[in-house]
Design brief:
Two copies of one chain form a homodimer. By secondary structure, chain A is α/β, with parallel strands linked by helices. Helices cover about 45% and strands about 15% of the residues of chain A. The first copy, chain A, contains 18 helices and eleven strands. The first copy, chain A, has a six-stranded mixed beta sheet with strand order 1-6-5-2-3-4, sandwiched between helices. A five-stranded mixed beta sheet of chain A has the order 7-11-10-8-9, with no helix packed on it. In chain A, helix 3 links the parallel strand 2 and strand 3. In chain A, helix 1 packs antiparallel against helix 2 and helix 13 runs parallel beside helix 15. The longest helix of chain A has 17 residues. Chain A is globular, with a radius of gyration of 23 Å. The first copy, chain A, starts with 5 loop residues before the first helix and ends with a strand. At the A-B interface, helix 7, helix 8 and helix 10 of A face helix 7, helix 8 and helix 10 of B.
Chain lengths: ~400, ~400
């Protein structure tokens, strides 16, 4: 049975969404009582799901909760080709083994959000691997070069003089053809997927099928306000252990607290509005950040684990104990001050410099006081002032 | 045995060529005594070879005469996809049957120029039809989008706001891959093929093969100075009957006479220079045009047929007999004056108007005098003045 409760549908279409196209049409479909096929493509090139990507999966969960059929496309074929959506560089080809290995980890993580038993899994190699050159040319015929280069991401790269491999133009064809093959009614994706999702509509129309509606979810920035990126260490993944996850969330920039509530929790929007107003009015953001951390940890580890993580955090920071820290991986030569800034351990370069002057920063493994404000970070645990700690792993 | 006579090689590389790339390299190869593999792609979408295209085949013949191996790629696969080189419109897909039918006629015509028994024929469907999507993506990976849109033909269409189908970007990949598969040392083509020919170099390099050299042949304009096009009736095909061919050539614009000698005959360049100078100095171009017509007719029909065609032409025009004319096919509503201008029956609109005024233009089938200088051409034979005739077929 499909739930057609209008309030739930409005939340589904409104909360945290970037684009809904065609909205009226989708609203009508969702209200019709017909079970819809909701497509989502998994591009299993990264082993860990971060809470930004989880926001999209949680949107999928909302469809599932209303009784719709979730169809997950395992991009075992497309992953070998590479997409251009979320990068300004070419992506390397992945071997079949890597794709499969990545997907195992992915499926486990997806299970933390969706009811896997009700999901229809499809491998797109089943149809894409069998296409002939002539058939691919038929797919290519559906698109003009002008449509492709008008895509924001491609346009920017052309303007910046960055190369686009012709291979990357193949990707929207594949994703669009997937929609034809699974007869999707709706496709959802990240904020940067609108072009690929609309490609599905164009392709379905070419093959005489009904056009899918599309929905994209807003981008959730990393803890430091920049785009989430493993190389910047500003990512919270849904597999983080409770204490690490709690600690990471406590490093989220204050101004991002409302957006994190919106995209990464189930806290109702009216409450989020109250929190936002309180912070604007001068309340201590730490209070709400702790609530945020508890909410998120509870989602992935349960309420008890969230409470324990909260207590662990409080004890560590009130007693000055060295907490059990997760490795903050940094690549190559990075200044300690940069890492501290990104993780919210200091609020400015000035604060960092003052701590250096007062000999309050120590590399604990070597028991050496850091005396250079431009010091390069070494592996090991640093004490920053009295109660702040960070464990760094240089890779 | 390969002929390495330097004078022949210089003529091969110099006469009527548009681009030779890399020239020094090719000169060295040709002088080495090694038999080279000379690739030429036949795109059998048009049933008749015109003398502009024949100029490319005659260049191929020059390689063959030196003892090199001609490899003709029958584009049975690519013809189904379509190229963008010589048109500003998309080309329709051809059925396999059409491709095969076209090729039969093609082979017969090629035999008028090349020694077919020594030619290696290859069908590119043999390798292209078997490629998987993943392999095609590897080919696509070799090119950047920027390389593609920098191609003159594509650039112009983008600037003019004309659509380019993404399918058309596939064509250079195929043609380039053909060079890999047949291990071409040299590829030759028409003046507009430089991009596709260079694609072969890029593709060969990617697959670790030696890069081919490329040679393109100048464009030969139609009788009226515009690009040869069947729809403009300005085309001379190598299958034209001797008298028709002779008559067509007599309608070539005077200023094109030297270029026709250069690209469509074997007359040595020193003689062409003398002819060019004579015309510039005021000699009657008709004399040289008759020589040109005899040369070309002799190439495709033999010296006797050329002499007969010459005499037929002289008799017809001196005695005022209605010659046996070939149909000049014109599409739709075209003004008679335009057709007469294109075929050199009048030298200006003024002359045409004067002939109308003096009631010297007649539609002979209906025995009606044409009295409107803007009259639309009808099917049938027209007499223009006393001795000029044209047979029109409106299609």
């Amino acid at each position: 049975m499909v739930d057609t409760d209008i309030q739930k549908i409005n939340t589904l279409l409104g909360r945290g969404t970037e684009d809904v196209f065609v909205k009226d049409d989708l609203l009508k479909k969702l209200s019709s009582g017909k079970q819809l096929r909701i497509k989502f493509g998994i591009d299993p090139t990264g082993p860990k799901i971060h809470i930004g990507r989880a926001a999209v999966l949680r949107k999928l969960k909302a469809f599932q909760d209303l009784g719709h059929q979730i169809v997950l496309i395992i991009g075992d074929f497309t992953a070998q080709i590479g997409d251009a959506s979320d990068k300004s560089e070419k992506r390397p080809m992945l071997s079949k083994e890597q794709v499969n290995e990545n997907f195992k980890a992915y499926k486990e993580q997806i299970g933390k959000i969706l009811d896997i038993s009700k999901v229809e899994f499809r491998y797109n190699s089943d149809w894409l691997a069998t296409l002939s050159f002539a058939q691919i040319c038929e797919l290519a015929e559906v698109f003009t070069v002008q449509q492709m280069i008008s895509r924001r991401n491609f346009k920017e790269r052309i303007e910046n003089g960055n190369e686009i491999s012709l291979r990357e133009f193949m990707y929207p064809l594949m994703q669009g053809y997937d929609s034809v093959m699974v007869e999707a009614d709706v496709e959802i994706g990240g904020f940067d997927q609108l072009f690929n999702l609309k490609a599905g509509r164009i392709m379905q129309k070419h093959f005489g099928k009904e056009e899918q509606n599309v929905l994209t979810v807003q981008m959730l920035e990393g803890t430091d306000g920049r785009k989430m990126s493993t190389s910047w260490g500003n990512v919270i993944t849904i597999t983080d252990e409770p204490n690490d996850m709690f600690g990471h969330i406590m490093s989220v920039k204050d101004e991002l607290i409302p957006k994190y509530f919106l995209l990464a929790t189930d806290v109702v929007t009216s409450e989020i509005e109250i929190i936002t107003k309180a912070i604007t009015d001068g309340a201590n953001p730490m209070i709400y950040k702790k609530q945020l951390a508890k909410e998120i940890v509870a989602l992935y580890h349960g309420a008890d684990a969230a409470q324990n993580a909260y207590e662990h955090f409080e004890n560590t920071f009130s007693k000055g104990e060295i907490p059990e820290l997760a490795d903050m991986e940094v690549a190559g030569e990075t200044q300690l001050v940069e890492i501290c800034l990104h993780h919210g351990l200091v609020s400015s370069k000035g604060e960092f410099a003052r701590l250096i002057e007062s000999k309050s920063i120590e590399h604990m493994d070597s028991e050496k006081i850091v005396d250079d404000k431009n010091a390069i970070a070494q592996s090991g645990t640093y004490r920053i002032g009295k109660k702040r700690f960070i464990k760094i792993k240089v890779i």
